[in-house]
Write a structure and sequence with these properties.
5-stranded antiparallel sheet, 3-stranded antiparallel sheet, 17 strands, disordered N terminus
């Protein structure tokens, strides 16, 4: 049977179902941060969201975007001459001196480990010639390459700007994108380093308490913190175990104690209550007479022992939902061809009425040639009967 004949739509993904009440018992009950998200950093599935799409002030977690853009658009061994503007940048710094030179790699270390705002300006000026040009290109990069939809940065460091905003979800996407780069991975997990420059010789320690080890959490693989009065405390944390790799973003907590408490709860939940699954590439979906194909297997991450449902929209966007009907993942499907609409009452969800499991539908389709053959025999027999009756 040709693949094009198999109309397979899996709305009730093959996992045991438990009650939503049982599933909710495993979720963190109290999250103090105004906004928080967990995503699987490998496939982008949303595992938890509290106001995840709400616009927030990011503060210094902005520097994650600055770092990955610089890594992808310049070489780490390039020498950067520090400008007067960079040396006078306010806020947290690594005390750069105007006129001194150092490698881009050292500036990135100062940016991420000590949250140097002066390093951010120096990196921006070196990479694109000016801070404005850097920020303009950074915003385009985030939209077109990373795929964020509700982020706009005015500067490379995260000091307050009226139109400087992002969301917890977008920051999780930016961080997940960055973590696919090995140079960024190494940068994101530096606990401490020796810093030598004209204006400051010292040892820098990561400000993220879980990365530094001040709050032990062995599964943590990196992180970045932020704080300005307008944003309060913000925190991005990556972690992994033998099953999953996740990114947790918490934004606008009123204290360090609250934001690390939230992050620990979300790490515990994300690393222990989820498992990976996938929709096979061979799957074909059908909606209103149009079939849709997959370019590849579609991986997703779901709560352990819980049901996931799917909904296919008219524009070919397939969305996965958890038991609480929270959006987990969306992907665009490829229209294949117009096909006859097949109706069935063996429906896995009330939201989508043309759903079949491949094996069952394939067996149904095998009957079609036989049915057509019998219909043709019946028509031929009826014609012969009528002709003989007429001759009589």
């Amino acid at each position: 049977m040709k693949k094009g004949l198999i109309v397979l739509i899996m709305l009730c993904i093959i996992t045991p179902s438990v009650s939503a009440q049982q599933n909710n018992m495993n979720k963190p009950r109290t999250i103090f941060s105004d906004s928080a998200v967990i995503i699987d950093s490998q496939n982008g599935s949303v595992l938890y969201s509290k106001n995840g799409n709400k616009r927030m002030d990011p503060a210094s977690i902005t520097k994650i975007a600055t770092a990955i853009y610089a890594i992808e658009h310049a070489e780490l061994d390039e020498q950067v001459k520090i400008s007067e503007r960079a040396s006078k940048t306010e806020g947290s710094t690594v005390y750069l001196t105007a006129g001194e030179s150092m490698s881009l790699e050292q500036l990135l270390n100062g940016l991420m480990v000590n949250s140097g705002n002066d390093a951010a300006v120096a990196i921006a000026e070196h990479t694109e010639g000016s801070v404005k040009r850097f920020v303009d290109k950074l915003n385009v990069f985030l939209e077109e390459e990373v795929g964020v939809e509700d982020t706009h940065f005015e500067n490379p460091h995260g000091l307050y700007g009226k139109n400087h905003y992002t969301t917890a979800y977008d920051m999780a996407k930016i961080t997940s994108y960055a973590l696919k780069n090995k140079q960024f991975q190494a940068l994101f997990d530096i606990k401490s380093l020796d810093w030598k420059a004209e204006g400051w010789n010292t040892t820098l320690y990561n400000h993220h308490k879980m990365v530094k080890g001040e709050i032990p959490y062995p599964e943590v693989t990196g992180g970045k913190n932020g704080y300005i009065p307008e944003s309060r405390h913000t925190l991005v944390t990556s972690a992994e175990n033998e099953k999953l790799s996740i990114v947790v973003v918490t934004m606008k907590a009123q204290s360090k104690r609250a934001i690390y408490s939230d992050t620990k709860k979300l790490l515990d939940y994300g690393l222990n209550q989820f498992e990976r699954n996938y929709i096979p590439k061979e799957t074909i979906f059908q909606l209103d007479g149009t079939s849709y194909d997959l370019e590849r297997d579609i991986p997703y991450t779901q709560p352990v022992s819980s049901k996931v449902t799917q909904k296919l929209e008219q524009d070919g966007v397939l969305t996965l939902y958890n038991e609480d009907h929270e959006k987990m993942l969306s992907t665009n499907l490829i229209p294949v061809k117009e096909t006859p609409i097949i109706h069935s009452e063996a429906v896995a969800s009330s939201e989508h009425k043309r759903m079949f499991f491949g094996k069952e539908l394939s067996q149904q389709l095998l009957l079609y040639p036989f049915i057509i053959y019998m219909a043709l025999l019946f028509i031929a027999g009826l014609a012969i009967f009528r002709r003989e009756s007429y001759n009589k």
